[in-house]
Automatic annotation (TrEMBL), chain B:
It comes from the Bacteria. This is Paraquat-inducible protein A. It holds the Pfam family PqiA. Keywords: Cell inner membrane, Cell membrane, Membrane, Transmembrane, Transmembrane helix.
Length: 207, 219
């Protein structure tokens, strides 16, 4: 049985149970004072909006250079992908794999994964609740790791600072990329995981 | 594992005999936990709550340790680079400044928040919450601060930053002479303390202590 069916609301912040009050729109948690809702309001619409914005920004994030490495007056702008290729050419495979996963695979997987989650919750298909919850937890866990490239740029800008001999400068692609990461993280936060289980009462309720 | 309740009478049970899963909304009878045990949702596997001993004392010790490490971790050099007889140093803070001075102030703010600002705010919230439980003062502010802490949680990214340091080290290692600094050790220490703190400071017990439901959490 779901808590919502018993007229009980769970606080999203402190997880305290609250009895649903009749006819009140804005009920606050008896313990921590946060607003409690049966389900997060407009969860799907908000998640869609954030997802679409990040999908649009995803294009400049991958096409524009994220940083320029200049040495002896010669500038060499690099995009996310070209950074990975340079690492492979230098034979640094493990670190190339880490960067590839964090900056290319994970953002792509998150965009596709959140879209799939939203589709399957709205259409009640094609994933089982268990697959959806694994996907949700994975997206929630992995999201932060895409900030890796941004931190690498920050470190390189600070340390490779030898004037005309060698220097590193951040470019607009980095702004777009950081926005994609932040927006997809926000999308994962606004998505209410309880929706995953709402259409699946018979699915795997009892194990 | 807790029992899912199916009888229609469940809505008449008192609320403190029940627990609902935060992630899938399954309603269950609340299990009694011994020290060191934890309860998981039988449907989706989410950890409902854990019961640990001396939560407040152990967490306080860790918060203070983390705060002591915070300044050296962020302001001592993480690494030094030598190129053609010139050398430069990198700290977490100089990374933020470097981005700011090259006109990327947006990114500088993001990096500052994720690697310095939010981790410090999280520690400050945790310290205030623990002290409010320990000294039994300002519980309502404690509740508010602990709510803020939960909203900040995902946005402190020390472990990702450490991975960034590793990537930078590998990228620079064969270009120039590189040496690691004391700041890196402090940063790793700060990260480890914070991870341990997340494990030990079990939210369920802190919420209960803050609302005065659990008399024993502070002792």
């Amino acid at each position: 049985m779901r808590a919502i069916d018993a007229g009980i609301l769970i606080c999203t912040e402190c997880h305290e149970l609250n009895r649903q009050e009749e006819g009140s729109d804005e009920q606050v948690c008896t313990r921590c004072g946060a607003l409690v809702h049966p389900r997060r309001p407009n969860s799907l619409m908000r998640t869609w909006a954030l997802l679409l914005t990040s999908a649009i920004l995803y294009i400049p994030a991958n096409l524009l250079p994220i940083m320029t490495i200049s040495s002896l007056g010669k500038g060499d702008p690099s995009t996310i992908m070209s950074g990975v290729i340079v690492l492979v050419q230098h034979g640094m495979f493990p670190i190339a794999a880490v960067v590839f996963v964090a900056s290319i695979l994970v953002p792509t997987f998150k965009l596709v994964g959140i879209a799939l989650l939203l589709f399957s919750v709205q259409r009640r298909q094609p994933l089982s609740a268990r697959q959806r919850i694994i996907m949700y937890r994975f997206i929630e866990f992995i999201g932060r790791w895409s900030m890796l490239d941004i931190f690498v740029i920050a470190i390189l800008v600070a340390i490779v600072n030898f004037g005309r001999i060698a220097s590193v400068e951040a470019n607009l692609g980095a702004v777009a990329f950081a926005s994609v990461v932040i927006l997809t993280m926000l999308a994962a936060v606004t998505f209410d995981p309880r929706l995953i289980w709402d259409n699946t009462e018979s699915d795997d309720d009892h194990e | 594992m807790p029992d899912p309740v199916d009888t229609s009478k469940v809505s008449e049970l008192p609320l403190d005999a029940l627990v609902a899963c935060h992630e899938c909304d399954l309603l269950m009878r609340k299990p009694q936990l011994g020290l060191g045990e934890k309860a998981q949702c039988p449907r989706c596997g989410y950890e409902l709550y854990a019961h640990r001993h001396n939560v407040v004392e152990r967490s306080l010790a860790l918060v203070i340790a983390a705060l002591l490490l915070y300044i050296p971790a962020n302001f001592l050099p993480i690494m030094k680079l030598n190129l053609l007889g010139r050398s430069s140093e990198d700290t977490v803070w100089s990374g933020v400044l470097g981005l700011y001075h090259t006109g990327m102030s947006g990114i500088a703010v993001v990096v500052f928040l994720c690697s310095m600002g939010i981790p410090l705010l999280k520690l400050a919230c945790q310290l205030a919450v623990l002290l409010s439980i320990r000294w039994d003062i300002g519980r309502s502010y404690g509740l508010l601060l602990y709510r803020i802490y939960h909203h900040l949680r995902d946005w402190g990214m020390l472990e990702v930053y450490l991975m960034g340091v590793l990537v930078a080290i590998v990228k620079l290692a064969d270009l120039a002479e590189l040496s690691l600094g004391l700041g890196l050790a402090c940063f790793v220490g700060l990260l480890l303390t914070q991870v341990l703190l997340e494990v030990i400071m079990s939210p369920h017990q802190v919420w209960q202590a803050l609302s005065g439901e659990d008399e024993h959490a502070g002792h």
